[in-house]
Amino acid sequence: MKRFSSFVITSLLLAFSHLPFALSLFAVPVFAEQKTASLEEIVVTATKVEEPKKDVPASVQIITQEDIKSSTAKNVGDLLSEAGIGHVHKYPGALTGRIGIRGLAGDAHDSSFKNKILVLVNGSLAGTSNLALIPVDNIERIEIVKGPASVLYGSQAMGGVINIITKEGKEDIHGSAGVEAGSWKFWKTSAELNGKKGAFDFYLTASRSAMDDYKAKIKDKNGNDYGKNTGYNDEAVSARFGYRLFDGHHISVGLQHWKGWEIGNPNASYSPDYDDHTYKERNGFDIGYKTETFNAKYYFVKNKSENHTVTSGAITNTYTSEKDTQGINAQKSFHISDHRVIIGGQWDRTEVDSWRNTGAPYNPNSSWDSYGAFAEGRLSLFNKKLLLSAGLRYDYFENRILSTPGIPSVKPRKEDLDNVSVRGGLVYKLTDSFSLKGNIGTAFRAPAPDELATDYVSSWGTHYIGNPNLKPEKSTSYDAGVEYSKDLFNGGLTFFHTDFKDKILSYYDTTLSAQTFKNVDGATLQGIEANFSYDVGLASGLNISIEPFTNITYHTRYSSKDDLEISKYGKILLYTPKWTGAFGIKTGQEKWEARLIANYTGDERVQDWAPPSNGKNVVKKGDFTVVNLKGSYKPIKNLEIMASVENLFDRAYEYVRGYPMPGRTFVAGVRWIF
Fold first, then answer.
1. Which of 201, 329, 442, 651 is positioned for an S-S bond with 242, CB 3.0–4.6 A?
2. For residue 410, what are the CA distances in angstroms to 250, 360, 435?
3. Angle at alpha carbon of residue 673, lines to 671 and 674, rounded to 5°
4. Is the torsion defined by CA of 632, 633, 636, 641 positive or negative?
């Protein structure tokens, strides 16, 4: 019944999202005079320069400021769950781990080295793949580039790039202050101030929130309600200050802080633990200088995580991990008539230290240095109707395993490697509104320090040895698509095919009597991405916006080529839903707006980590649909009232098997705007 109801909800919303095509046949031409002109979408991530989305050969999905404002999301992990881009590994307690795009994902435990999706903040490494550590309050938009992007960004940009772009000050002085309250004793206070006066601009925001334990629709193995020990406390502060030195030259300094404490860690429903908790903190700093053709920036991000094991009310074990990420990137663009060349380089360093108050840490300390240089050119032909691009990049890596307190057997070691990436693309504009697009490129994920250089015996007696002969994981991807955007209609359709090879596999080598690594065959992935939106209300001459929208990813093939993986788990890739979708409708007028969105996640084959399987067996995790509703109303110019319902139909669902999500959740709030 659950599966059937999910299908019915999704089918109804899918049908409704295509209603404008039928209604538009009867719409009168006069709507053209009454419609609200929409701004052209400008993106920066796909080519590292600002340009219209229609000129970009890659498939790009944008989570706009309007989407963020009308979302129930509290952090970027929630936003991406709503976006319908693919697999999402989302747990209770400030942890959104593995994100999958086009069947390529990565480590589910916030590894800085082993992801196949690259996460950026303002074009630089986010320093974490746990997107629950990044709140939404200071985000202007998120650009998701699907497919290979290693030519511009280096390692990990295989399935795509998620670039989180933060807010900057706007003309004059603006601000707001608000409070929210809701289910599970949730509360939040927030304030914002931004402005631009003369050569100076600034943006400031701060918030504080907390929530008690929620209640899920699924019981734990003991028959108790799941959700105990899922509460949290957090705070966030963000600031950006900018100064225009003279025309076209701008310097900016940004700060980001997020801290969460007493974050419940309930473990899985098949093995509940209602005592343990965690502490997490993320702090970032950047300073940049930008002109019309030059951009340079230094950034630094520090992440800290403490996991507390509690026995009989007392903390008996604390595992701490600190991760420092910093780097410098610079680029210069040259324009020759309508043609363009971009050259650039970057250095990034990540250092990971971990320790326990008793016993040995789980992993040795490590560091990773990356040096990259790239060039990409674009020809603009036939009066800018045909755009041809090609790019090349070289990367060099230094990987180190370091001496680690608590693991005396660690042998410090350094291993180096390099890689070359290429890509090309085209855009052909049949009309100003209709374009054909194509993209081909290679991408890679460099081996992590432990995969290359580790050599130690763990506290449980296993010998781990790195393989210095490992090759990077690689992919070759092909895209072909169409895009149409005119007036109140936007739509696109993309077919993609990816050959993934040299996957890095951890295995036990009987000759070495050790756990080590090797390259094996990867996988074949292909599918279709589609997105449509159309404001049927304005198009029909009504004085109200009614805009159905659809975002779909459908995998036509997602099969492993590794014989060992096939023998253990079968040919179909794990943790890859056949299709995901976001379906909904946005509506509003000057004083009010509302959005209903349904997110569908299809069946997935996943490992069964419940005893006695402990990951050896594979089971099917069923599909589910989550429906969220949010609306706001301004009774007067400076006052906004908001209300939302998450999981509107009170469904039982879980992104990760054994970790049920909350039941129906209500939130209401008020905001004073000045």
1. 201
2. 47, 11, 56
3. 155
4. negative
Neighbouring-strand partners of residue 214: none
Query: Are the CB atoms for 155 and 370 separated by under 8 Å?
Result: yes
Spatial distance between the Cα atoms of 231 and 185, rounded to a whole number of angstroms: 9
pLDDT digits (tens, 9 = 90+) for 523-576: 999 999 999 999 999 999 999 999 999 999 999 999 999 988 899 889 999 999
CA distance 71 to 584: 12
**2.40.110.10, 1.20.120.1560, 3.20.170.30, 2.40.170.20: CATH of 2-506+515-673:** 2.40.170.20
Tell me what the mean pLDDT of segment 579-599 comes to.
Answer: 95
For 458, residues 6+ apart whose C-beta sits below 8 A from its C-beta are 360, 362, 407, 464
Q: Are 632 and 642 in contact (CB under 8 A)?
A: yes
- What mean pLDDT comes out for the span 238-262? 95
61 to each of 120, 490, 498, how far by Cα in Å? 15, 12, 19
Task: Say how far apart CA 632 and CA 671 lie, in whole Å.
Answer: 10
pLDDT beyond 70 at 3: no
Its pTM surpasses 0.85:
yes
Provide the token pair at 637.
Answer: 């110019």
Task: Find, among 419, 425, 469, 427, the residue nearest to 443 by Cα.
Answer: 419
- Residue 155 backbone dihedrals phi, psi, to 5 degrees: -65, 150
What's the CA gap between 263 and 279, in Å, rounded?
6
Angle made by CA atoms 71, 285, 49, in degrees to the nearest 5? 70
Longest pairwise C-alpha distance within the chain: 78
Beta strand 51-52 pairing with 42-43: antiparallel
In tens, the pLDDT along 177-225 reads 999 999 999 999 999 999 999 999 999 999 999 999 999 999 999 998 8
Q: Which residue has the tokens 């903390």?
A: 315
User: How many whole angstroms separate alpha carbon 101 and alpha carbon 424?
Assistant: 20
Average pLDDT over every residue of 386-409: 96
**Structure token digits, residue 21:** 């095509």
Phi first, then psi: give them for residue 132, nearest 5 degrees.
-70, -15
| 503: helix, strand or coil | strand
pLDDT of 113 > 50? The answer is yes
Q: Which residues neighbour 177 within 8 Å (Cβ) at sequence distance 6 or greater?
A: 190, 191, 192, 671, 672
CA distance linking residue 345 with residue 373, whole number of Å = 4
